[in-house]
TrEMBL record:
Coiled coil: none annotated. It holds the Pfam family YjeF_N. Residues 1-89 form the YjeF N-terminal domain. It comes from marine sediment metagenome. PROSITE patterns: YJEF_N. This is YjeF N-terminal domain-containing protein.
Amino acid sequence: SKEIISDFENKKLKRAVRGLVVCGSGNNGGDGFVAAKDLLDYGMRVIVFHISPVKEFSPDSLFYFKKLKAGRNNDVYYLNLEELRIWDN
């Protein structure tokens, strides 16, 4: 996220106004929640989907998930892949 923000600023790119972040339950999921918060703080509207139930989050993911939810972002949703049945082909 810091690299994306840097690209916007250094290359004078047009700032994106919306973003989408998909997070899993492990530590990389925590990185996704951090990235979403950074982009929100930069002024973007960010929608976040997590694909694991909160009870399965690693300690780091849970910490950053709660930090994100404590902020101004209400666009955080659980995307239950089992219910989507997209893998039934």
